[in-house]
User: Fold this.
Amino acid sequence: MTTIGIMGGGQLGRMLALAGYPLGLHFRFIDPVAGEAPVDALGERVRGDYTDPAALEQFAAGADVVTYEFENVPVAAAQQLAARLPVYPPPAALEASQDRLREKSFFREQGIPTPPFLAVNTREELDAAIKEIGLPAVLKTRRMGYDGKGQALLRAQEDIAPAWEALQGNDLILEGFVAFDREVSILAARSTTGEIAYYPLVQNKHRDGILRRSIAPAPDTAPELQALAQSYAARVVEALNYVGLLAIELFQVGETLIANEMAPRVHNSGHWTIEGAETSQFENHLRAILGLPLGSTAPRGHIAMLNIIGTLPETPAVLAIPNAHLHLYDKAPRPARKLGHVTLRCDDAETFEERLAALKPLVPRD
Ligand SMILES: Nc1ncnc2c1ncn2[C@@H]1O[C@H](COP(=O)(O)OP(=O)(O)O)[C@@H](O)[C@H]1O
Ligand SMILES: [Mg+2]
Assistant:
């Protein structure tokens, strides 16, 4: 019996376990959240803090390999566990992605383009950074930001003071605003054996900093663009001796790609792979960390993924659409909260467009 220990008890952990049970795997979790967590139906959860050595010990006992489903796991906790059992992705990947300044510096070292960026710790540094980078720009906290939280868009001079007011006290980064044609992401899985598999580029639509919809494969993608994205992902996974699934969010400008951020874990822009790819990102993450052969990443037709945010749709209405698949995460509705997603998968483009048009109004706009 192989047991995977997952740090984090959210929907990504839930979908990892759902992908792993058919392979005969067992799962245990650690997450401090009081009340219910999305993983609770899928295995034992140690309800302890990641920084509590006794809780970590209890979690690790009985686990053969440890992984995580969110990137803000304290690096020290991952390192503590790595001293006694395999922990994938390597804690160094957590370190590289938890701090936006380190992350962008790392991309730059790998020759991967990024927006211009500068560290900002004081109001004087902010003014100097704006002078150098120009407006529009985005001011972000270096750590702990997600779903657009902890960032402010600076369009004009009058946006500066309120943004500083809201974010000061944190270590910050100022980035040039990229007037992108679209946002895409590349997902790659690298196994302990060094084998790498790449998914087709995904086109992502965000609103208020939250992913709303993905289309896969990203329409009108030149093979050269796919190859460019893969080459960037290859540099990242090789440099970090990475194991597991990695996602890189990119801005497309013309036929160039600019790296926004990376996630050392399965990613929301890969949820379409559950029905839409020969092998899902969740299964390939598990195969990768167990050193098993990676599965085909080939897409199965035309695929859309719609996030369910804030309000639940009517289940029967969604399921009445042929080719629609509903995933609910067992979370109580709350504004701006990711509660689930719907995947639509069709063999031909015409049916896809028709059914997508029927599906869109059924998923409430938060
Ligand atoms: N420098 C930028 N230029 C243009 N848009 C940006 C920039 N930074 C962030 N955004 C927009 O905000 C979204 C969320 O920002 P991101 O840095 O990915 O933070 P999070 O960790 O919250 O996902 C991006 O997907 C993009 O739509
Ligand atoms: Mg992002």
In short: The pocket of adenosine-5'-diphosphate (ligand 1) is lined by residues 115, 138, 145-148, 175, 177-178, 183, 206, 209, 249, 260-261 (CB under 6 Å). Residues 202 and 218 are 5 Å apart (CA to CA).
